[in-house]
Structures are given as C-alpha cells and as structure tokens.
Amino acid sequence: MFDNKDKTEINELGEFGLIEYLTKAVELTQSTTLKGIGDDAAVLDFSNKKTLISTDLLLEGIHFDLRYVPLKHLGYKAVQVNLSDIYAMNGKASQITFSIGLSSKFPLEAVEEIYEGALIACKKYEVDLIGGDTSASAQGLVISVTSIGYGEADAIAYRSGAKEGDLLCVSGDLGGAYVGLQLLEREKQIFLENPQIQPDLEGKDYIVERQLKPEARKDLIQLFETYGIQPHAMIDVSDGLASEILHICKASQVGCKLYEDKIPIDPMTYDTAREFGLDPTVCALNGGEDYELLFTVPQDAYDKVKNQLDITIIGYITEEAAGCEMISKSGNVHPITAQGWNAFKK
Amino acid sequence: MFDNKDKTEINELGEFGLIEYLTKAVELTQSTTLKGIGDDAAVLDFSNKKTLISTDLLLEGIHFDLRYVPLKHLGYKAVQVNLSDIYAMNGKASQITFSIGLSSKFPLEAVEEIYEGALIACKKYEVDLIGGDTSASAQGLVISVTSIGYGEADAIAYRSGAKEGDLLCVSGDLGGAYVGLQLLEREKQIFLENPQIQPDLEGKDYIVERQLKPEARKDLIQLFETYGIQPHAMIDVSDGLASEILHICKASQVGCKLYEDKIPIDPMTYDTAREFGLDPTVCALNGGEDYELLFTVPQDAYDKVKNQLDITIIGYITEEAAGCEMISKSGNVHPITAQGWNAFKK
To answer: Most buried among A160, A215, B197, B216, using CB within 10 Å?
Structure first.
C-alpha cells in the first residue's frame, strides 16, 4: 500500500490541483466521447443508439473495509461493479464518472492508488473516465460511480422480458465472493487479536480474488453477439442468485424452477464454505457480489448455450402461478426466498 | 422538519423496501426516458442529439450542515446544483439519478423529506428521476446526484469557446448565497451558545433563500433559444465569479477585462456583507454557490443581451497576453485571482 513517510497532504493541492493531478493519466479512447473531464458536463454521442445509465455508491464501513481491501483493488472493483449493470442490459459500457470523498487521513498517494485501480479497469474494459467530483469528507471514504453505455433498442435486455418455457442460465460460478469475504473477515479477526500472525490465505487465491477483484462479464455480451444469442431477460448477480431470480420473475410476471444440483459452484468455494460450516448452496443463493449474469433465453437457443463452457443452464421459466421454486439435490421442492445482502441490516 | 415520535426505522424496510417506498411518487414525464427506476440501468433515447452528463457529491459536514439546512431544501438544492451544470452547457436537462447514504440516526420520515425536495425540483424543472442507489452510511449523510441532458452539437457551449472581443455576461446577481451562509452560520453560533434565542433572519429572506434554495437557470437557456443567442463559452458560477472567469479564460486561451462597478450585487447582499465587515465585491468574486451562468457572446449579440433585465454585461474578452484583470470602481487595475471555495481547506 503506501508509506506514510512519503505522504503529501491533499489540502496543499486544493480541489482543482487534485483533479488535475489525478486525471493527468486519463486518456479518451471511445469514439462516443466528444468531451471528457474539464467542462461543466461531459458530452457524448451515441448517434441513434439508446443511452444506458447506472450508478452506485460505495461507502467505507458498509461496502468495504480498508483494513483488508487494498486501495487499488477498491478503485478497480468500484468500476467493475458499475460496468456490470450496463452489461446486464446487454449493452456496451463506454464511459464512467468517478467521484470520491476523502477524509483528511488520506494522503495524495492513497487517492492515487484508488484512481490507478479505477483507470486500470477503464483501460481493460475500454471505457473512458469522463468526469466526477472530488471532495473532502468529514467522515469515511465515499466513492460514487456512474456508468454510461449504449445499445440497440432491440438488443437491450430488461428484467421484464422472461417468457414461460425460457431456459434460466447463469455465467461463471457463484458463492465465491461471499466465501472469500468470510475468509478475509476471519483473518482480520485473527490479526486484530494478535498482530504478529500474518493472514493465511494460501491456496485461496480464487475466492479472495472473487471478493477483492471481481470482473464484470463484458466477455459474455461479446459472446452473445458472436453467437447471435438474444437474452429475453437479464440481471447481474450482485445480491445473490435467489434475489436476482425473484427480480426477474417479479418483473416478468413468471415463475421458475431452479435445480440445486445445476448451480455452478467452484470446488474451492465449496470446500471453504464447508470449512466454515456453511452450506455452499446457501452461499450461492444468498451470498452476492459475484457479478455474474443471470439471464433467460428461448428454448430454441438451447444448442447455442449448451456448448458454452462458461454458461450453465440452471432451470427454466414457468407460468407465474407455479411460483418460484428450487428442486433440491434430494428432490424436495422449496420456495425460493431472498435473503440477499441488506446494507440496512443491523 | 420531522418529529422523532413518529419515526420509522429504515432497517425495518430493507433496501428494496426503502427504494419502493421512496420512489412510489416518481412519475416519468420526459419522452427521452424509455426506462427509469427498476432495472440494472435506465434506458434513454436522445435520438441524434448529444448526451450531457455531470455528477456531484454532497457530504454532510462539508457541503451542508443539518443544523440549519432543512432536509427538503437539501434534496431540492442537491438537484439544482447538478442541473445547473447541464444548463451551463446550453443543454436541456432531462433526467437525474439520486443516490443517498444514510446513517442510522435517520428515520424513514427524514429520508422522505429529502426525496420530496428532490422530486419537487424534478417536477419544476421537468426532469425525470431515473435511478440511484440507497445505502446505509456508517458516518454522515451522503448524497450523490448525476444529471443527464442533451443538446444539438452546434448549440452546446463549452468553456473553451470564448473569442477576443466577446462580451462577458452574467445572469442574476452574485454574492448572495455566500452572505446568506454567513448569516446562517452566525445564527447557528448564537443558538449553540444560547438555545433560548431563536434565529433572527427577518427581512433576510432573499439571501437565505439564495443559500438554502438556489435555482438553476433553466430560464436563461430558454431565453437564449427564444432570442437566438448562442453563447460562445459558458460556465455556472459555483465557486465564485473570479474562479469561473479564470476557467473560461484558461480553457479559451484568452484574457479579459472585468469592471467591478458592473458586477450585479443585490442591495440586501450588499448591506448584509457590510454588516459583517465584508467587501461585497469580494463576496461576489470569491463567494460561490450562486449558480448563475457566466457566458460570453459575440459583439453582434449586444442588442439582444443589453435589454434582458436579468443579464448584465460585466466586461469583455481580450487576447491572452493581456491577462485577466478587474478595473476597480476607483479605476485601478487588479489581476483576477481565484480564492474560491475549497473543500480541502482546513
């Protein structure tokens, strides 16, 4: 991270100085960006395409714990979490704004790390940083990201488009980010009780990375385009599979059958959940922060999705009256209930 | 404001419940909004116009003091401050996202007041609330607003468009918001020292309102359209006239002459500044938060602007080498320096 010996106090620079300093590395690469940072508003040109907008707030002590989240990862994750919402519309993410509120404990070098992480994400995902706001914060670190993208009217996938008979599909695997968080929390407790003991995360890279450095599924949107797959409905898995399924079913006025044995769970997620005495399925259903895409496709897309290594068919859409149910591994039927992450829970 | 007896705790509702509750009054009125709240991203249609985006962060203890800012005013102001950036591009504001981070001390009724203020602003300015994020905050109140608008490519006014010989103009009057803040701060101190004494703001409505309930200058953008005025360069006055003039001159690579005796200052602002032992001109130059529009027009627009009651010609644009100077009332020449508001100042 950073060494306090080398720290530069932000108030030496002032707001405009800070913005100039932080944004000197910003390059505009997107043809849709006419004007980025440096005016009252950014100017974008999506010609005849539809504009997509999504925004997220990330607050210290609620969404992240600076005791184990490296600042560069935090900047990276803040961008990913937001881009994920644009991809979840089957859109192309093209710009973000990045706002930050900084308590005085942050030296310039710390803020730079956050920005560096954000810019790495922008570069990798081919997105322009076009604006934001920079302020002192009387309390903790505040990050607010707005992501902007575009899509053709008939390609945009809403939550409300699922139809009876659709296949219910998910990308990647689930529960890893949640189990990774449990691991980080445990090591934090051990460290707080005995600072001599270094965190033991060996061999747990995958789930730690799922928590600290998630990747939005831009690749899936490209895959849809390549294979001519048009999702009927789509949502990103930020609050847990159960919650997202219910969102789609409610918005689409349909029901669904979910097969527990089809839910994709990585072996490391499975084993570590067991270590913690947790049910891996519950971690996938209610864990959240996986940023995979949950979507439905018509049955005639079956051949196109079944051979994609990174897509799993986990169930199907039914009529609304049939409800939202999970068929367990033992064959029992359970109603799906959302116990996803709630920022307001005490 | 609200009575703690009637308070409802937010965690009883949960995040989705809270969003549903707060947004039940949201109506979509703009033809450019295809989808508002309720999906991963909002979907907008600006056909072949350019998209404008701006974002601001408002943090408790930095940008507002809840001891004298009514919550409804806060919601209203948060929206105005942001819309102002779209108008400053000579654009039409059409949507906002409104995100809020709430400490547990806030009951539902308090959050409702903030939203109510925001929605009043949306309705008055014909802007749709299309999304946002709602979270608990471990510290103070956090508000983040992103405003979205559109404009024709050749109508958009950048900071960089000022030309030598242009007239330098400003709408409304300046310094009022700053002097209003001094008044509110003084009454707060008196109240803190002796809670029996009620704030004495009688006869000071105008400047108190300038601080607590600013109005973005949508009307000016409409006036430009009606009279066929195309500003060469424009910026909104959020950090003080001096700072904004320097922004335009730097971005446009020009200099300017500003006449102190032309700076529009309301009599109440003038008298109250004097009461506080402040120079009214300094309040206008460095005070900030007036949310008026500063712009330049070519000389041939002189006839069009000179008869507008709400526009004052305060100077003109020179070549860059001549620098940015103010001619004082006594005829002395001073370089213009920015001492605008700095959130990082200790």
So the answer is: B216
Residue B26 near chain A (CB below 8 Å): no
Is B8 touching A (CB cutoff 8 A)? no
Q: What confidence category does residue B2 fall into, taking pLDDT thresholds of 50, 70 and 90? A: very low
Q: What angle do CA A219, A224, A228 make, to 5 degrees?
A: 150
> pLDDT exceeding 90 applies to what percent of chain A?
74
Chain A residues in contact with B13 (beta carbon < 8 A): 344
**HSE on the CB side for A99, CA within 13 Å?**
28
Q: So what's the pLDDT on residue B128?
A: 95
Lowest-confidence region among A106-110, A114-118, B264-268: A106-110
Q: What is the least distance, in Å, from the CA of B331 to any CA of chain A?
A: 31
Least Cα separation, residue B202 to chain A (angstroms): 31
Mean pLDDT value across residues B23-44: 90
Check whether residue A83 and residue A210 sit in a common domain. Answer: no
Residue A69 has pLDDT above 80, yes or no: yes
Give domain status of residue B346, yes or no: no
B34 and B175, same domain (yes or no):
no
Shortest Cα distance from A332 to chain B (angstroms)?
29
How many domains, in total, are found in chain A?
2
Record: contact A236-B11, CB cut-off 8 A:
no
Q: What is the ipTM of this complex?
A: 0.89
Tell me the pLDDT band of A18, cut-offs 50, 70 and 90: confident
Q: Say yes or no to pLDDT of B273 above 80.
A: yes
Residue A236, helix vs strand vs coil: strand
Position B268 in a domain:
yes
| Interface residue of B146, B156, B291, B293 to substitute, partner A, most A CBs within 10 Å | B146
Q: What single string gives the DSSP state of each residue in A148-175? A: EEEE-TTT---GGG--TTPEEEEES-SS
Interface membership of A86 toward B (CB under 8 Å): yes
Quick one: CA dihedral B191, B193, B197, B203, positive or negative?
A: negative
End-to-end alpha carbon distance in chain B: 31
